[in-house]
UniProtKB/TrEMBL annotation:
This is (-)-germacrene D synthase-like. InterPro entries: Isoprenoid_synthase_dom_sf, Terpene_cyclase-like_1_C, Terpene_synthase-like, Terpene_synthase_metal-bd. GO terms for molecular function: magnesium ion binding; terpene synthase activity. The lineage of its organism: Eukaryota, Viridiplantae, Streptophyta, Embryophyta, Tracheophyta. Residues 3-216 form the Terpene synthase metal-binding domain. Keywords: Lyase, Metal-binding. One of its GO terms (biological process) is terpenoid biosynthetic process. Its cofactor is Mg(2+). The keyword Lyase applies.
Length: 275
């Protein structure tokens, strides 16, 4: 669980609302939006201005209004001295996610399977490593500075490792379901096509990249001195969280499975006192 301490209440409010928004946007890109609608939505997010809302179809207007409201409300939860730059970087990370989603939508629209290099350049962004870390930094108002955000957006080694873990673990667990419902090729399909190997061989090679990424994460978490330990630990915890979500099935998408059980045990079921 990220930032469970009592003093991080505003973090949990901001993080929860922003994750809810990106989940809705992800569904719009994967399921609901036509290619033309997605193009208009991407332009609207780039402009980040309520004046463009009438250019969107009705169902997107609901999402777009809520998106801008979430970040406006988040700024009010933050001290004035950190709110402006924190929200700026948070919004930039959201724009990056939407740009990456649209790049993947173009691949799917044109039935194009990218090379691994092309895929990873976009998919490391759409996987959400920078977005999740930036959103977490926004909520950690007492320990984060503008310099910390600038360090993060340069994609330091620890974040790069986190991005790789998120993207590849996600792809290896979800790719069969996503291909069945009609989504863009994952790292598994891209690797298989580029190198002419079986699914088993592709996954074996991708797991090597995941293991190497974890080595980078652990090394940087132990030896990095540019930013404070709470910020480094947040990035590590984000990578660890993905291991829970995608251990062997996608419990984020199929949330009536272990995700429901975990939430129930954490917040609803009483803790036994007679142990």
């Amino acid at each position: 669980m990220l930032a469970y301490e009592l003093e991080h209440g505003s973090f949990r409010i901001i993080f929860t609302k922003v994750i809810a928004m990106i989940t809705i946007i992800d569904d719009i890109f994967d399921v609901h939006g036509t290619f033309e609608e997605l193009e208009v939505f991407t332009r609207a997010v780039e402009r980040w201005d309520m004046e463009v809302i009438d250019e969107l179809p009705d169902y997107m207007q609901v999402c777009y209004r809520a998106l801008l409201d979430v970040y406006r409300e988040a700024e009010h939860l933050l001290p004035e001295e950190v709110g402006s730059y924190s929200i700026y970087f948070g919004i930039e990370s959201m724009k990056g996610m939407v740009r990456a989603y649209f790049a993947e939508a173009k691949w799917y629209h044109h039935q194009y399977t990218p090379t691994m290099e092309e895929y990873m350049q976009v998919a490391l962004v759409s996987g959400g490593g920078l977005f999740l870390a930036a959103t977490a930094f926004v909520g950690l108002k007492d320990v984060v500075t503008k310099d910390d955000f600038e360090w993060l957006f340069k994609i330091p080694k620890i974040l790069r490792g986190c991005q790789i873990v998120i993207r590849l673990v996600n792809d290896m667990v979800t790719h069969k379901f996503e291909q069945k419902v009609g989504q863009v090729a994952s790292a598994v399909e891209c690797y298989m096509k580029q190198y002419g190997v079986t699914e088993e061989k592709a996954k074996h090679e991708l797991w090597k990249h995941v293991n190497d990424a974890w080595k980078d994460i652990n090394e940087e978490a132990l030896h990095q001195t540019v930013v404070s330990a709470p910020l480094l630990n947040m990035i590590v915890d984000i990578a660890r969280m993905i291991g829970v979500w995608y251990e062997d099935i996608d419990i984020y998408t199929h949330s009536s499975t272990r995700m429901k059980d975990g939430i129930t045990s954490l917040f609803i079921d009483p803790f036994p006192l007679d142990m």
